[in-house]
Amino acid sequence: MRFPASTELPPLRAEATVAEAGVRRRGVGGPFAGGDIMEVDRRTFLAAVGVGAIEAMSPEDKAEELEHYMMHRLDDSVAPVLDGEESALLDVGPQEGPRPPRGTGRLFAPSTRVLEPMPARPTLVDFFRLRFAPATHVLQSAQHALDTGQPERTIMACLLHDVVLNMIKVDHGWWGAQLVEPYVDERISWGIRYHAPLRFYPDESVGYEYPELYNRIFGEDYVPEPYIREAYDFAREHRWYMEARMITVNDTYGFQEGVQVSIDPFVDIIGRNFRQPREGLGYDNSPSAHMWRTIANPNRPL
Length: 302
Description:
By secondary structure, the protein is mainly α. It has 15 helices and 2 strands.
């Protein structure tokens, strides 16, 4: 078989609504009730990134840098509870010398991490275990969607929305959508594409407030770039708007310290909502097969 992928998806439910998502403002009970939303100290963050570097960044770059900083902190926090093979998946040791471009994906940054070989026909679960791990942020985001009874389509979007950061960070919503587009319902990839600009704009109907952390770290005059505003205006009027909005809602629950997560609860959901090619991701001649090969083999010179 060559592209298109071999497995047909079952019929999906109608567009997600606030009611069916069961979304509430902060304070949702359930397994995540015991987790603490990560606090970021402004001075520590600025010292880690560099005040001069921050001043030279666009508003979008600042937000991305802050989110990546939080993701790394979250992944680092799970290192002590991993053992054996899993602990080897984490980057260890301080970085010395010049930094790579800030848009460089995690797999391409200087690291002592030793990558295990991928199977001959890798699946999405293989990528989670061998390339995306520990993937704490997206797993927490998807777990919140699962625990609050949201549609599988939303859970799947949350699970996938930031995995492309392993390859590239610049405009990650657009890159992330392109990565998964051949394998998921169109509404999932659409939501991933537009969750990036929607992060910066509140929506009281689902209890999503503009992230106060942006203002606290960068100041009240924080304004996204014009292309971000244009993308938001387009998405806001689109019939699939809520597909992207629900990713941003669950995204805010994806930075909880002390909450352990795993890919295991999502294996069946992936089976129902992701068209796994028989040849393996990267080898099915899809429009994004080269991206999966890149993630699988970041050390190849050509």
